[in-house]
């Protein structure tokens, strides 16, 4: 699985060091002591495969230029039905990176990006937003089916584990999951109930925001409710509409980073 093509500042660590299943499990169990429901931790530990383990690691604490962090996990539908929207998604995503990189909070915003088709893929590991290079067609290449549930459970597992790593090293964080999809799951091993159980456990803690944007479904609210995401917005599939949604995401991320967000259900 690919990690970010990044521009590393002088003196920073040159790579994200993979973690073992035992290390990731310990971080997830540590999150229980910090308030995560044990049942959700059990689901996440059981979900630790090679890809998810990559999503659990990120920039070393000593390389961060901030005393706190806002962690943003972006989850992009890359199934075959997104083929005609490839250019629009790439450009909207890259515009979001540019906006976040140019914000005053940029040093404290770390981004991880997942995509899903037949299986989830980690496109970007946890790094400051300014370190990320633009997304390209070679990375975001829609094809296959829709493993939405597997991707969401994987990204949540990585978010909790890396967030706990920061917490254990004295760096508190606010944590956001944003998913863009054009339809329901038709491929995952995981169940909607598994994702919803994890979502409820995260939302029980004030640090988390879960946001769902989509198109192509007659009942987007029901799809979001199935996975426990309270903040939902329907978008058109045009380039201008996708840019608008990603602009909203970047603006909301900045508000969250500044502690001025209105709440988990008011992200959009």
SSE string:
HHHEHEEHEHEHEH
Q: What level of helicity do the residues show?
A: 25-40%
The CATH superfamily label reads von Willebrand factor, type A domain
Using only C-alpha atoms, the radius of gyration works out to: 17 Å
**Biggest sheet architecture:** 6 strands, mixed
- Total of domains: 1
Oligomeric state of shown chains: single chain
The top-level CATH class is Alpha Beta
Strand content: 15-25%
- The shape is globular
User: How many strands appear in the DSSP assignment?
Assistant: 6
Low-confidence stretches: 1-6
Walkthrough of the structure:
With 268 residues, the protein is of the alpha/beta class. It has one domain: Rossmann fold, CATH 3.40.50.410. Helices cover 38% and strands 17% of the residues. The chain contains 8 helices and 6 strands. The chain has a 6-stranded mixed sheet, with helices on both faces. β1 (69-77), α4 (86-101) and β2 form a beta-alpha-beta unit. The longest helix is centred in the middle third of the chain and has 21 residues, at 148-168. The radius of gyration is 17 Å and the shape is globular.
Short description:
This protein is of the alpha/beta class and 268 residues long.
SSE order and pairing:
Blueprint: H1 21-33, H2 38-46, H3 50-54, E1 69-77, H4 86-101, E2 109-116, E3 120-128, H5 148-168, E4 173-181, H6 192-203, E5 208-214, H7 220-226, E6 231-234, H8 239-257
Parallel strand pairs: 1-2, 1-4, 4-5, 5-6
Antiparallel strand pairs: 2-3
Helix pairs in contact: 1-2, 1-5, 2-6, 4-8, 5-6
């Amino acid at each position: 699985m690919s990690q970010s093509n990044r521009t590393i500042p002088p003196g920073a660590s040159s790579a994200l060091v993979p973690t073992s299943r035992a290390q990731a499990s310990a971080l997830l169990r540590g999150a229980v002591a910090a308030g995560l429901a044990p049942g959700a931790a059990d689901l996440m530990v059981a979900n630790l495969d090679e890809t998810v383990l990559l999503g659990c690691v990120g920039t070393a604490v000593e390389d961060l230029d901030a005393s706190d962090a806002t962690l943003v996990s972006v989850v992009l539908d890359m199934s075959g039905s997104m083929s005609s929207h490839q250019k629009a998604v790439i450009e909207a995503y890259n515009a979001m990176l540019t906006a976040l990189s140019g914000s005053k909070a940029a040093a404290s915003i770390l981004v991880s990006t997942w995509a899903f088709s037949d299986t989830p893929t980690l496109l970007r590991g946890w790094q400051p937003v300014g370190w990320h290079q633009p997304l390209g067609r070679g990375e975001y290449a829609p094809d296959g089916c829709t493993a939405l549930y597997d991707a969401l459970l994987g990204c949540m597992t990585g978010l909790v584990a890396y967030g706990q790593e920061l917490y254990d090293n004295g760096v508190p964080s606010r944590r956001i999951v944003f998913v863009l999809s054009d339809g329901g799951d038709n491929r995952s091993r995981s169940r909607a109930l598994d994702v919803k159980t994890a979502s409820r456990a995260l939302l029980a803690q004030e640090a988390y925001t879960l946001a769902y944007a989509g198109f192509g479904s007659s009942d987007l609210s029901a799809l979001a409710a199935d996975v426990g995401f309270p903040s939902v917005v329907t978008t058109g599939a045009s380039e201008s509409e996708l840019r608008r949604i990603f602009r909203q995401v970047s603006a909301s991320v900045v508000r969250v980073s500044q502690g001025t967000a209105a709440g988990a259900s008011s992200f959009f």
